[in-house]
Amino acid sequence: MALDDVAVFPTSIWDGDSANRDSNSGNKKSPDHRDWTRMLAEVAAAQTRVYNNERGVSDNTIDSVGTIVSKTGLSVAEKGNGAIHKTIFTLVNVVMASTDAGANGAQATQQLYTFPEGHIVILGGHQVYPIAGFVATSGGGGGYSDTAQFGVGIGTTEVPAGVGLATTEENIAAETQVDLVAASSTPAENSKNAAVLAIDGSAAAAKVWLNTSTLADGDHGAVADILTVSGTVTILWANIGND
Fold this sequence. Notes:
Low-confidence stretches: none
Mean pLDDT: 85
Shape: elongated
Structural class: mainly beta
């Protein structure tokens, strides 16, 4: 028989014991204040666990959530606990400035997130952008061509000027091609990466970058331009520990 009002959940499932009754004896007497107090403690313990899992923080795990970059139009929802975690980014007209690299096209990049410090295992990544998810603010060929084509990927490093997306610039969600029509993207675009990816963020916390790079020199002129981006990026990951 339980002799106190301390909840046993989540260590074990409550069997109905309280300071007033022992479930093993099969007694059927009416409940008193000791039963009600124990019941309230167990309900509160269950609600705490559900709440912590929903908001992304386990009640006995630290550093299970990373830090989103402060950027107008960028928000994040954190789901899960310290074991398996899902981070969902929503972009609504997020501004990205392009840098022209001459014959090597143009690139634009935006950091989204910093993981907690430690060894991060990414179980999957996905990016999706609706029709008109990308809009060239200037367009007209001075910056982006109204019919520009460029690759978009999610990676753990930012794309440098003058190169196309490769390796760590698209290792979270693989590069997908975006086509502009009248300076606005169509059709909707998406890509994923379902391969397990291990990242050593023990010495310096790993980051998440949204990267773009034009596919040909004619896709962008010499004038810097602005891409406004709307879409969703989802990452399923775990922090398996720090050195």
